Design the sequence.
């Protein structure tokens, strides 16, 4: 079973936010290879077992499934890799790990492996109130979901069909 939990620091940050302090802000995501072993998340962890990459979060949003689930996304660039992802951490701007997740063993290849790809990671974390979380979108790194693109394309397709229909109608009525 794979899951994400708050660390002690994350629990403290959420409690402080609920008491009127700063909101919980997931700024960076890090991945680790667990030193070759599966990782069991523990709230007392302050770092990943073996961090191999860290980068900025691209999207923090409330999920459609539940108003108390937050989705946190990041992209590992194509040029980075050569290891197997087994653990993921979420960090604030000060570098404090707020949440830890175990992750299904997922290879992140590089070109030297004969194959390469960008890797998009999405973690879900249950929160007491999304009012305590800073929701952000970085327009420089955000990727559109298939559902979003499809929702835009369908009206455009109808518009193109309507233009063709009208052009056909006018062409046949003018001559």
Sequence:
């Amino acid at each position: 079973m794979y899951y994400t939990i708050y660390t002690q620091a994350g629990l403290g940050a959420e409690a402080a936010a609920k008491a009127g302090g700063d909101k919980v802000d997931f700024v960076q995501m890090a991945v680790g290879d667990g030193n070759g072993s599966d990782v069991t998340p523990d709230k007392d962890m302050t770092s990943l077992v073996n961090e191999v990459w860290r980068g900025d979060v691209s999207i923090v949003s409330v999920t459609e499934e539940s108003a108390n689930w937050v989705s946190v996304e990041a992209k590992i660039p194509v040029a980075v890799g050569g290891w197997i992802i087994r653990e993921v951490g979420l960090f604030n701007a000060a570098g404090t790990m707020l949440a830890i997740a175990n992750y299904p063993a997922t290879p992140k290849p590089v070109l030297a492996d004969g194959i390469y790809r960008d890797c998009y990671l999405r973690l879900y974390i249950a929160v007491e109130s999304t009012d305590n979380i800073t929701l952000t979108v970085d327009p420089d790194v955000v990727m559109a979901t298939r559902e979003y693109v499809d929702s835009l394309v369908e009206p455009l397709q109808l518009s193109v069909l309507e233009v063709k229909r009208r052009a056909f109608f006018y062409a046949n009525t003018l001559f």
Notes: The chain is about 25% helix and 30% strand. The chain has a mean pLDDT of 81.
